[in-house]
Amino acid sequence: MSDAAEAPGMAGDEALKAALAAAASEVDEALDALLPAEEGDERSLFAAMRYACMGGGKKMRAFLVLESARQFGVAPQSALRVAAAVEMLHAYSLVHDDLPAMDNDDLRRGKPTVHRAWDEATAILVGDALQTQAFVVLASPETHSDPAVRAELCLHLALAAGARGMVGGQMLDMMAEKATEPLDEAAVGRLQLLKTGRLIEFSAEAGAILGKAGTHQRQCLGAYGREVGAAFQIADDLLDLTATPEEAGKATGKDAGAGKATLLGLLGPERARAQAARLVDQAVTHLDNFDKRADLLRALASHVIRRKN
């Protein structure tokens, strides 16, 4: 992993930007090595998988894996493999979310969505292949020498991504669009926790799993990830309201028209921003038992609500 986090004399924002950029580059290199080469009769599928994962996106979840692993001295190569696996699974979710049957989006990360660049059937297969490849990476001995650690990574990522996690949250999101009564704040919070928060929570905890950390440290990182995930989703909803498609790298202004259930819609912009700030403050308190090596995690919590894309 990059030494940007250790660079002396850098302001917090500058250090974070440098570390995020370095991590994104390193994770793209890992994805390049871990995703199948564009060869053989399946080359169109492989090309679309790489298109969905590489060369764009914030790689925030991957960054969380790398930084949480750094707290416990995890080997960089192990952390990078887990970070890449998380990015594969996240990319699969975006490819499927963009489909006409879901959010019907034409733009993602500033370029045509997979079903536009190829076709709908290929996009479905790309998502399927990226999801399974993520677990191939986690289950491989190269990720960690201890099979119990590999099994735990697979279990917790599956829980974060499945019917009681990301997929379940997407289902609740679609159901809310058709509901005759709007969801209340608690129901929207649960929807967003499942759809967005669980994967971010896993990303923050993954380094502790790799490092065989104690229960308390794992719980602290998981709680940090939950709060950051909730703040991130509010910020995302605000960007949908205020950012241009060029700034966001995707279509904006769609949530209200689609009847999306969001805290922004319930609270309004001012109260939603205040709620996001409270969540950031809570997230940082969960890092009180970590030393200065966690400063980038502290900075990231604030960054997620100040970002422009």
Automatic annotation (TrEMBL):
Keywords: Isoprene biosynthesis, Magnesium, Metal-binding, Transferase. Its cofactor is Mg(2+). Belongs to the FPP/GGPP synthase family. This is Polyprenyl synthetase family protein. The keyword NAD does not apply. One of its GO terms (molecular function) is transferase activity. CDD domains: Trans_IPPS_HT. Transmembrane segments: none annotated. It is an enzyme of class 2 (transferase). Its EC number is 2.5.1.-. It comes from Muricoccus vinaceus.
